[in-house]
Design goal:
21 helices; about 0% strand; single chain; disordered N terminus; mainly alpha
Amino acid sequence: MSNNATNKGPIHVSALEPSTLIVSVLMAALSGAICMQIISKLGITPNTSIIGAVVAMAIARVPIESFRKFRSLERQNLVQTMTSAAGFGAANCLLLSVGILWVMGETRLIVPMAIGSAIGMLVDMYLIWRTYDTPLFPASGAWPPGVATAEAIVAGDQGGKRARRLLEGIVVGAVGSYFGLPMAGVGIVFIANIFAMAALGIGLIVRGYSTSLFNGLDLGTTYIPHGVMIGAGIVSLIQATTIIIKGYKSQESGQDADGQGATVSAREIPKAFAESGVLFLLGALALALISGILSSVSIGQLIVWLIYAGFSALVSTVLVGMSAMHSGWFPGFAITVIFLTIGVFLKIPAVPLALLTGYTTSTGPCLADLGYDLKTGWMLRGKGKDPAYELAGRRQQFISEAIGGIVATVVVLLFMNMHFKMDLLPPVSRVFATTIRAGADPSILRQLVIWAIPGAVLQAVGGSGKALGILFATGLLIKNPIYGLGVLAAVVVRLIIGTEPMEVREAGLIAGDGIYGFVSAIVKTFI
């Protein structure tokens, strides 16, 4: 097959091809181990998609005949897909989940929690694979990190003006990041929906400067942001349900729903959600069985726990996916806190609630990750012009992502005891454990209910296509005012100059920020 990204043909590079699989697995294992270290020491996880792509491009240029096959853009796409899956899975899903049980002293439940989280993570991947390029998660959506990775791969293959523009963006992105400027956010503004990014920027600024804006009130010490997210989330779920119902009705009538994706009909959405919902519920049941909590709760409590665990997993992954698609951010931890808080008011006992929290937090990150990587593949394969070709390639990416998730599970099982002995845990794991121990406070419930109203109104006004409520709430939940200022400044610049002058350069800004952030994180973590 030619290196041209838009070439079409009946045969795809297989994710299971020995040379591709070996390189991908090695990269995935390394990515998983490094990201475990980074999230434990810095509390964040870099997106390693662009790193996987850069390594694959470097391998392709090694003057050895057996490495020449990595000039294939599809192989590079598969390598970066598995690399990022293992990084996100090991850090954001598995280590974070088992860390909660370690902090709480429930060491006997660590392995069951790891198994439950792995199940939730894999179902997460399955859901986005089945619903990608539908009206719910369209391939034409922003998915900014995926765009940056695709632009990097294409520029590396084609060279010329495209490569120069990308390199300019990478240099500016890396230098700006060195000085603490939010270069990825600036780049994303020129890719994503401008209204959604404005809502995110405003939310970040309101949260970051809340003490100055509201007479000393620090929003971070309240549950106001969580209430806004709950209201926006409820409306977002109604909007998503409307899309699902349309798909179901079109399935019954045999007609395509309005807004059909380029490669997947809206009729597939109800099937995928029904299957994923059942799988999430079965995963929760498996976790209950292997953890032994059946003996510690009544039948009624168990039924409530199972239903709530399955519901939380499904809703969390949809909300995280919406935010990731529109902005490149996924507020997985913040959304998990919401379900944890509601679980406290449902009077779920501490240990079952810890398991439920771990299960919920394992859903969302890998949906976002695979959504980004599928966007990369979609661009490389010609943006769905040949649906059969696109779907076949997408299937190989799903296989790579799933293998990456399995590699992540093995890496965490191998290295988690080392992390425990060194007290290297994600900070969020400690936050979750502390929240579970704190118990219910009636004032929290009042805040959640009151502030859900403006969140719901904002999401309803913007509609599912802009996700104003979700993105504003995301900004309120994250303390990063500099990022907010950068986003709003970029919004103003985009309104003035448009997007054409930044074409490819915006992807370079994201890539440069990501490369600098990854290298910097490694230096801070290991040196």
